[in-house]
Specification:
There is one protein chain. By secondary structure, this protein is an alpha+beta fold. It has 3 domains: 2-176, Jelly Rolls (Sandwich); 193-236; 242-299, Arc Repressor Mutant, subunit A (Orthogonal Bundle). Helices cover 44% and strands 19% of the residues. The chain is built from 11 helices and 11 strands. The chain has helices at residues 13-19, 109-120, 138-146, 156-176, 193-206, 213-220, 224-235, 239-257, 262-268, 274-285, 289-299, and strands at 2-3, 24-31, 36-42, 45-50, 55-63, 68-69, 76-77, 83-86, 91-96, 100-107, 132-135. Strands 1-2-3-10-5-8-11 form a 7-stranded antiparallel β-sheet, sandwiched between helices. The radius of gyration is 21 Å and the shape is globular. It starts with a strand and ends with a helix. Residues 197-295 form the HTH araC/xylS-type domain. It comes from Enterovibrio qingdaonensis. Keywords: DNA-binding, Transcription, Transcription regulation.
Length: 300
């Protein structure tokens, strides 16, 4: 489902520049939809970007007050919760003096173009991302801090939510941070009954393995964004929440009706580890898997 960013040959120039200087990579994931996120830290030095062939959204998670971008009209200084947008083919030079951490979202011009065409039914060839340096955006702040940074990027179930969050990020950028913002998305209802059944059957048959938002969207022949939106209309929750609920239900059934160890149950239900199963199970059921099994056996 995922590939390391360093293994990709295209659209990773900003990532490669950071890896070659003083920046420290803390976390990263690159999903099959071609969108990548990374969490970095740095403390000193200089970074120069010279016409990268992809877009980068940079968000300062912690610190950055003594991080500056050299500008002809005067240097600009960063800070916590500040947003920078570095469009394709831009040039910039950055200087660091104190420790800080930052989040990057990597995407290509084709992502903006297809998003404009699929979501807004508009010609996307001429859509152009604005260049922004150390601006405030409450929506981006909430999306990154309350959703994206709280997910386990290595977990296949959480990657469904990460993919959905990336779609929300692109929607916001197209609406708010392009030179000719697109305001109105297509009005759509929920999934048809046939597509609802197909998606439910696919999920039920695939709980033990990983699958992506794109895999689910392909069943209905919709874009990732439209599928996620229409799924929520139909089911009252996101695909991530629905799949996680199904995995918990299967775990409950296996705990009652089988003697399989927790490690096997976690694998059969699509959890990355026994620890992840226990964490999600206790959060949603109110008891650990072992306690739930004991209590259900007593009742039986």
């Amino acid at each position: 489902m995922t590939k390391g960013l360093a293994e990709e040959n295209k659209s990773r120039q900003v990532y490669d520049v950071l890896q070659s200087n003083t920046a420290q990579l803390r976390n990263e994931v690159f999903l099959d939809n071609g969108l990548g996120v990374a969490l970095w830290s740095n403390s000193h030095g200089t970074t120069v970007y010279d016409k990268p062939n992809h877009h980068t959204l940079s968000y300062y998670v912690q610190g950055g007050q003594n991080t500056k971008r050299a500008m002809r009209g005067g240097d600009l200084f960063g800070g916590e919760d500040k947003l920078c947008l570095m469009p394709i083919n831009h040039r910039s030079a950055w200087h660091y003096a104190d420790p800080f951490s930052f989040f990057h979202f990597y995407f290509e011009q084709s992502h903006l173009q297809s998003f404009a065409e699929q979501v807004f039914d508009k010609e996307g060839r001429h859509i152009e991302l604005k260049e922004c340096t150390f601006t405030d955006d409450p929506f981006i702040t909430q999306l990154i801090r309350q959703t994206m940074l709280k997910l386990d990027w290595s977990n296949t179930t959480d990657q469904l939510m990460l993919s959905h969050a990336q779609q929300m990020m692109l929607l916001h950028l197209v609406r708010q941070h392009c030179h000719e913002p697109l305001r109105q998305a297509l009005v759509t209802g929920g999934l048809s009954p046939v597509n609802q059944r197909r998606v439910m059957e696919y999920i039920d048959a695939s709980l033990s393995r990983s699958f992506t938002l794109s895999d689910l969207a392909a069943i209905t022949q919709l874009s990732d964004f439209h599928f996620a939106r229409m799924f929520k209309v139909s089911f009252g929750c996101t695909p991530h929440q629905y799949v996680l609920g199904k995995r918990i239900e299967r775990a409950k059934s296996l705990l009652i009706h089988s003697k399989s160890p927790l490690t096997d149950i976690s694998a059969m239900c699509g959890f990355s580890s026994q620890q992840h199963l226990s964490q999600q199970f206790k959060q949603r059921v109110g008891a650990s898997p072992a306690s739930y099994r004991r209590n259900q056996n007593i009742k039986l």
